[in-house]
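Example (one chain per record):
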Amino acid sequence: MTSRRDFLKTAAAAGAAVTTPFWFSLETARANAFQSPNERPVLGCIGTGSRWDAVGPNAMQFADCVAVCDVDRRHVEKAADRVKAIQDAKGQAKEVALEDDYRKVLERDDVDIVTIVTPDHWHTKIAIEAMQAGKDVYCEKPLTLTIEEGKQILKVLEETGRVFQVGTQQRSEYGLMFLKAVAIAHSGRLGDLKTLECGIGGAPDSGPIPKADPPAELDWEKWLGQAPLVDFRYKPGGEWGNSRCHYEFRWWYEYSGGKMTDWGAHHVDIAQWAIQQNGPGQGPTRIEPVLAEHPTPLENGVPTQDDRYNTATKFEVKVTFPGDVTVWIKSHARNGILMEGTKGRIFVGRGDLTGSPVEELEKNPLPEDALTKLYKGKKPVGGNAHMRNFLECVADRTQPVSDVLTHHRAMTTCHLANIAIRLGRPLEWDAEKEQIVGDKEAHLWQAREQRQGYETSAV
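Predicted structure:
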């Protein structure tokens, strides 16, 4: 019988020998390479909080998990119990290691792929070290906290040749509405795209959050990682409470970028895909903050209070792309993407795809291969299409539909928008050189200082 490792090494050659694109149907995947215990990839899960509850089980449809890791003991024990239950039910029982240091997962020779579902400020360091350790990577969005981090990941990806999928599921799922919207735009049915509006929501305002002792199960210093060493804070309230930790990390610039990078990672990605500005050397030319409100005063872009959420609660940013195309990023617009061209307009969100050009598809459908071409020759099938696409690409050694380069280009726009609203002034951007032009202070914001002992190595 062909071993799992032999299969992964030879799948690309097998794909090259046929004339049709190499991709598994869902049924074939389960019946063949992703079904036999000797041929299924081996998975390590790094970060097992609430979002992992979807990502981990999705990965286990195609891989067997042997290790779970989190700096919160409650999370890792919960994840281990779920892994055992899922794999025992399938007759694929394996011993599951519980770790609090991701490096122990990366050191394992038997692990082929990892999922990274940590807070944003940990993504880049773990992803780079995973690739350097020979692992293929599925990492949740937003992939990066700074522009420089995206450049570092691309460098290591090229050096190592690993397969890397970013968790922007809108490219694969939600009834393929976003994929269809991009196909409509690329078909010319909207004419020349001139204006796009991304409605992504704003961050909450927590008010003062008192200092507290970290839970005994949480390694707070390790959770902070590269970020500054500060006091743990917690205030009861709502589903999660207000804190500096776990899900609420999104509302602190130290760990994330608020809604700008949370939902912006989804909608700005689709917008730039639609206007074909997500490839090498592509991107915006000018980023102009029209409106920005923060829950704490900023001084030179830095929050002046450390006891409350600090990402923007309300914002409106005008982003100009080549060809005089404008993309608006707004907190208080309908969630989704409005695309307006010289011939028509459409709106796409997670619940609908509307507009005259959509209605016209009934009589004049898109070419049969329109979606397949966007999907790099493969087919998005099933409710778990995004993870499936990742494992298909692990098999044939191609890059998935949500590859690092296109995600980096979209995240660059989001990071620039955050820099602009924090500094309160427009920015000029050279997409070819990937540099802010004519503003030395703003240019420094393309990277961040990393706490000693947690630096990222992109050698």
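Caption: The first strand starts at residue 42 and ends at 46.
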